[in-house]
Amino acid sequence: MVLDEWKKGLSVLWSVQFIGMSAITGVISFLPLYVAQLGITEASEAAMWSGVLVGSAAFCAAISNPYWGAMADRKGRQLMVERVLFLFALIIFAMAFVSNVYQLLFLRILQGLCGGVVAASTALAGSMIPKGKKAATVGMLQTSLIIGGAMGPMLGGFIADRFGYRQPFIAFGILCIVALGVTHWAITEKHSPVPAVDKPSLKATFASVWSVSDLRLMLLVQFLTQFAIHSIGPILPLFIQTILSTPNNLASISGSIIAIVGVTSAIASASMGFLSKHFSHKQILITASLLGGITFIGQLAAQDIIMLAVLRGINGLCIGAMVPSSNTIIAFLIPESKRGAAFGMTNGVALMGNVIGPVSAGLLSLVFGITAIFWLTSILFFLVSLLLFSKLEGRMEARP
To answer: Where would you find the membrane-spanning parts of this chain (predicted)?
Structure first.
């Protein structure tokens, strides 16, 4: 594949991952408000249900990602991306027409089970990028997930405030159809299926991945980072409601605050090439996790939206530094022959952070109030920094 072809393919897959992540996270900014419209009017119960709805989709995605990654190795990565986008579109369309939270929960579970777009598209990108360019493009591809995770809630909140809480689902469904069309006509994969005798079982792949100590630690970093990103989302509109004097445009404000994290994360991720020339990955990860813990505590003291936005922005810088650093290390450790299944495994572990974070937020809000999740997330950031300082091997300290 000539240089121009792989760059074109990478641009398309960047857009596909951006749209897929936007569709996954787009409901966060208004989900508690949509739940209230479906009959759950008590604030603590709405927070609990929002956490369950977000966490259930992420849990099922974590389970299904290894399957989609392995199927991408066997059937073709482009085909799997297209299938997942088609299923995504149908399910998201259906969410606009639910009449109660149980129907919405069922569809969120289905969405999670069909949530292998990241694993399949990452594997497809890995098969297209020249060997000498793989490490350099990991951070760039990662920004699609960060920005998509930020812009999705902002777009969803904007549409919800102006057109109602059901219309964002229709908009995201249409975006998935557009991404499907672009993938089908703009990419031509030259797929060589793995011979049956060489196909590793998922159990063997998991054992192989889990046997590398540095990789285990990076998976833990990704898990805790995703926990930090997604733990606040389900209760953020309710937390902002306690700061605002008037509830006008609450979904849009919540979406914008979530978007700030994505924008600053993308800035930090794009700056990793410069940072990694002057600091080791270990130094970057430890510093970012310490600062992340401090800023999560600081958000509890925020007296207005501006202060909250600034602290969330600093949070985003920390997360944006941690995610690509850990992914860069993982990229060097994953064997070529197991890329699809292995990326499915790593994405699955990271997605468990997406599961436990929102569910923890919902349950803690129900028992201790909506501020409890800020304390827990801060403690987890400090735990990450301690583990990185004490356990990350010296050979990973070297600057690339």
So the answer is: 12-35, 47-68, 80-99, 138-159, 165-187, 223-244, 250-272, 284-302, 314-334, 366-389
